[in-house]
Amino acid sequence: MEKVIFYILAIIMVASAVAAVSSRKMLRSVVYLLFVLMGAAGLYFQMDYNFLAAIQLTVYAGGVVVLIIFSVLLIQHIEMELEVAGKYRQTISALICLLGLSVFLATIYAHPFEAAGVTTTTTTAEIGRALLSFEKEGFILPFEVISVLLLSVMIGAIVIAKGGMEIERPLMKKNDPEKILQKNTKEKTEEKIPEEKNRCLK
Amino acid sequence: MNLINLLLIPAIPFAVFLVLGIFSHKIKPAVSGVIGVAGLATSTLLSYYTAWQYFFVVEKINGAYQTFVEKTLWINFTDTLHIDMGVLADPISVMMLVVVSTVSLMVHIYSRGYMKGDDGYTRFFAYLSLFTFSMYGLVLATNLFQIYIFWELVGVSSFLLIGFYYTKTSAIAAAKKAFIVTRFADFGFLIGIFIIGFYTNTFDFQLLNDPQGPAILTWASTSFMGLSVITWALILIFIGGAGKSAMFPLHIWLPDAMEGPTPVSALIHAATMVVAGVYLVARLFPMFYMVEDGFALQIVTYVGAFSALFAAIIAITQTDIKRVLAFSTMSQLGYMMMALGVSGLEGHEGVGYMASMFHLFTHAMFKALLFLGAGSVIHAVHSNLLQDMGGLRKYMPLTHITFLIAALAIAGVPPLAGFWSKDEILVAAYANSQVIYGIGVFVAGLTAFYMFRLYFGIFWGKEKKYKHTPHESPASMTIPLVVLAFLTLTAGFIPFSELVTADKIGFEAHLNIPLAAIAVTVGLIGILLAWIFYKKENDLANRFASAFGLFYKWTSHKFYFDEIYLFVARNIFFKNVAAPIAKFDRKIVDATMEGIGNQTVVLSRKIKGWQSGKVQDYAFGFMGGLVVLIVVFIYIFSN
Amino acid sequence: MIPGVSINEILTLTSILFFIGVYGFITRKNLISVLISVELILNSSVINFVVINKYLYPELLQGMVYSIFIIAVAAAETALAVAIIINIYRRTGSVEVKETETMKY
After folding, report:
1. In chain C, what residues touch B619 (CB-CB under 8 Å)?
2. pTM for the complete prediction?
3. How much is the ipTM here?
4. Chain C residue with minimal CA distance to A126?
C-alpha cells in the first residue's frame, strides 16, 4: 500500500518538475513547483517525519512559492510567453544531465546500503531538545548561526529592494549596455597593424 | 713600485667620461672643458710620475727593467686558459703612457679654443676622455683578450669622434668606413687570438713571450699548409694591427677619417690610435722574432715598407692639407712597422725595435704639432684646401714657427727629434737588407719634399683673397703648439736606447755618421726641390705633373683603391650575398613569426567567446566538467 | 522507513529531480525560472538528507535537523534573489538573463 502511494507521489513530483522547467508560462511554472514541494511533504509524512513535513509545507510551499508568485506578479504580464533556449543548447544540456544521472544511478546501485529495519518515530519534543541542547548531540550553534543569517538576509533584502537610486526608464532599448559593448569591441578589432617599412642596405 | 697609480691613470678619464656623458645637459660648456682638462692633467702627472719611478728609481734586475703585473681573474675557461683584467708596467707601456698623456693633454687644451661655441662641446670632451681611457687600457693590457677589448673600445671612440659632426653625411660615411674597415681587420685579429688560445692554452703576454713558454717552445709541433699554426696566428694578429695602423691594403679609412674635427685627427689619427698596431707587434715581438725564424716578422717588414712608399707617393699630389698629413702618418707608420720588422732581439741587434719605439715617441709629438697647426690655419682661413691658402706667415707668426719646426723634424734635419729616430731606423734597415734601406732613404726624401710643399704652400706664396683677415689663434690653441714644439726640439736627446729595448736591457746607441749624412742630404734635397717648386708661385709644378700624365692622375686619386673597394662591396657583397639573405629574413623568418602571432590572435578571439558573462554558461561548463571528471576518475582510473 | 520501498528507489527519485533542476538552470532564459530550478535542486538534496537519515541511521537526528536548516537557508536565499531581481527589473526593464551579461569579454 505504501509502495503505491510512494510511486504516485514520485510520478507527480517528476512530472511536475519537468513541467516546471519547460513551461512557457511563468505562473504555471511556479504552480508546478508548488506541486513538487507538496509531493516532497507527502514523502516526509510517509516517513513519519511530521515536524519536517509541516515545516516544508509552511516555509517552502507557503513562503517561498508565495514570494515567487508575488515577484512574478510585480514583474510582468501573466499571459506573456517565455522564450526557450535554442535546440542546440537544449540537447547538449539534456545529454550532460543524462550522463550525470547515469553516473549517479550507477554509483547508487553499486553501493550496498544496509538499511536498518527499525521504525522509530521522532517527536517534536525530541527535536526541540536537540535544537537547543549544549551537549554532544546538540545543535545550538547552527541554530544561532541560522538566526543571525536570517537577520542579515532580512536587512539585505530591505536594502537591495529599496533601491535608492533614480528609477530608470523601463525598456531602455536605445542605450542597451550590451549593444554598446558590442560596438566598442568591433571598433577595436578592425584596427590594422601598420606594415614595417623595408630598410635598404646602403 | 706602486701600481695603484697605474689603476688610477685610466680610471680618471673614465670617470670624467661618465660625468660629462650623464650630465651633459646640465653642465655649462666652459665647466666641462675645465673638468676634461683637469682630469687629464691629473692622469698626465701620474703618468710622468710613474715613468720617472719606473725608469729611474726602481731597481733593475740583471740590468733589465722588470715587468710589474697586477691582474685579477675575469673569465675562466680552463685552468690555464683564462681572461684576466689588469695592468702591466713594462718599458713600452710606460713610454706609451707618457706619449698618450702628453698628446691627449695638449689636444684637450687646444680643443677648449678650437671647439668653442660648438653645440656638442661637452659631448666632445666626453668622447675625448672615453678615447683616452680606452687607449690607456690598451697600453696597460696584460693579455691578448684584454688588449682586444680595449682595441674595440678605441675603435668605438674613433667612430664617435670621426662622426662628431653627425649632420654631415660625409662625416657619417667616414665614421662608418673607419669602423667597418678596422672591424674587418679585427676579425682576423680575433681568429688569431683564438688560434693562439687553442694551441698554447694561454692568452697572457708574459707567458706567450717567454722563450721557454708554450708558444715559443712548441711552435714547430703543429703546422698547417706549410707554416706553423702559431705563424698563422701571428699573421692574423698582424692583419688586425695593420687595419688599425692603416697599412696597405687596409689604409682606405685614414684619409676619410679627416672628416672629424682637427683635434681628433691630431689625437687619434696621428699620435695614438693608429700606433696601436705598431704597439701590438712590439708587445708580441719575442713571438714574432722567434717563431719559425721570424717568418711573420718578414711579412711585417714588407708590408710596412710598401705602405711607407705608397703613402709618400700619394701624399705628394693631395690638395687637402689634412689628407697630406694623413698620408704622411701612414707613411711614418710604415716606417715604424718596417723598423720592427728588421729588428733583432738582443743588445745591439735590437736597434730596430728601439728605433721604432723612439720614432713612435717623436712622431707623436711632431705629427700632433703638425695637425694642431693645420687646425689653427683651417680655423683662420675656413677652408681645408691648399689652393685657398698662401702667405699666411705674416698673419700667424706663432703657428708658422711651430709648423716649420715640426716640418724640419719630420724631414729629418738635425738636431731635431725626427733626425735621431729616423737615423736609427735607417741603421737597422741597412743592417738587414739593402733594398729595404733604399726604400727607406727614398721615402725620407719624398717625406721632406711633400712636407715642405705643404709648408711653402700655406705660409709662403701669393696671398689669396680671404673672407676676413686671418688672425693668430687664441692662447688656448697656441700654448699646446709651443709646448709640442719644445718637445720636438728636445726629445731627440733622450737616451732612448738606455730605456726602451727589445730585451729590456739598455745599450748605448752610436751615431753612424755615413748613414746619417746620406739621410740628411736626401732630406735637404727634398727641401730644396720643394723650395724651387713651391716657394714662389710658378708653373713648374704643373708642368711636371702633366709630364707624368696618367701616373699623376692615378696618384692624385689615391690609385683608385676607394673605388675598387666600393665596387667589390656593392656588386659582390651587397647584391649577391646580403640582399638575398635580407629577403629571406623578411619573407620567411619574419613572416613565420608574424604568422605565429596572428594565429595566436585568431585563436584567442575564438576562446574569448567562452567568457560570455552568462552565469548559465558557466554553470553548464561546471556541470559538464564535473560529470566528465567523475566518470574519468571513478570508472577509468580506479580500474 | 517506508515499508516496501528500498532506499535505492528514493535516491533514484532525488537524483532525477536534481538533474531536472540542473537542466532547468542551464536552459532557461528568465531569471525567475532559474530561481525555480535552484529551488528544485535544493529540495532534492533535502530529501536526500532525510532519506539517508531515516534508512541508515534511524536513531540519530542529524539529517532531519540539518534539513530544517537547509530549508531556512533556501528560503532566505530566495528572498534575496527576489530582491535582486526586482532591482534588475528597475534598472533595465526586463528580467532576461541577457541583461546580466556585462561581465563578458
Report:
1. 22, 25-26
2. 0.68
3. 0.91
4. C61
